[in-house]
Amino acid sequence: MASKVFLDANILLDFTLKRNKYEQSKQIIKLAINGDIQVYISPSILHIVGYWLSKSYGNTKAKGILLTLLSDVTIIDLPHEVVLTALHSKISDIEDALQYYTAIHYKLDYFISRDKLLQKQSIPVLPVYTPDEFLNEFKK
C-alpha cells in the first residue's frame, strides 16, 4: 500500500513556481503521479498555493495548474474537534498547527515541510520530514 503523505504549502510552491528546491519537490510529485505515494493537502494549502500562482501566472493559468495537481493530490479537511486540539497544541504557528493536526487526524504516514520550527515542534506520532529526509527514507 502506498504511503500517505501530507505536503505543506512550501513544497507545492517550490514545485509550481520552480523555486530553488524545485527538483526535490518534483521527485515527490512524481512519486504521487506514479502511485508510489498518496498525497494530501488541506483547503488552506490549496488557497495559499492558488494565491501565489495567481500572482505569478494569472488566474487562468493558476486554475489550470491547480486542476492538474488535484488529479494526483487529495483535499482533506479538518473537523471542529481537530481545530481545538491544534489550537491547544505546542505548535506556535496557527496555520502549521491546523495542517499538522489534520494529517494526524487522517493517520497519514509522513508530513513534508521545509519549516524547521514545525519540525522541532512535531510529536513522535507524526515526525515532520524535509523533502531530502523523506526522499532518503522512501528509498530505503
Describe this structure in words.
By secondary structure, this protein is α/β, with parallel strands linked by helices. It has one domain: Rossmann fold, CATH 3.40.50. The protein has eight helices and five strands. The chain has a five-stranded parallel sheet with strand order 3-2-1-4-5, with helices on both faces. It starts with a strand and ends with a helix. The model has no long low-confidence stretch (mean pLDDT 95).
Amount of helix: 55-70%
- Major beta sheet summary: 5 strands, parallel
> What is the 3D shape?
globular
Beta-strand content estimate: 5-15%
Strand order of the largest sheet: 3-2-1-4-5
Secondary structure tally: strands: 5
Q: From the helix content, strand content and strand pairing, which structural class follows?
A: alpha/beta
Ranges with pLDDT <50 over ≥5 residues? Answer: none
> What does the average pLDDT come to?
95
Output the helix-strand order.
EHHEHHEHHEHEH
CATH topology: Rossmann fold
What is the distance, rounded to the nearest whole angstrom, between the alpha carbons of the first and last residues? 15 Å
What is the CATH C level class, in words? Answer: Alpha Beta
How many structural domains in the coordinates? 1
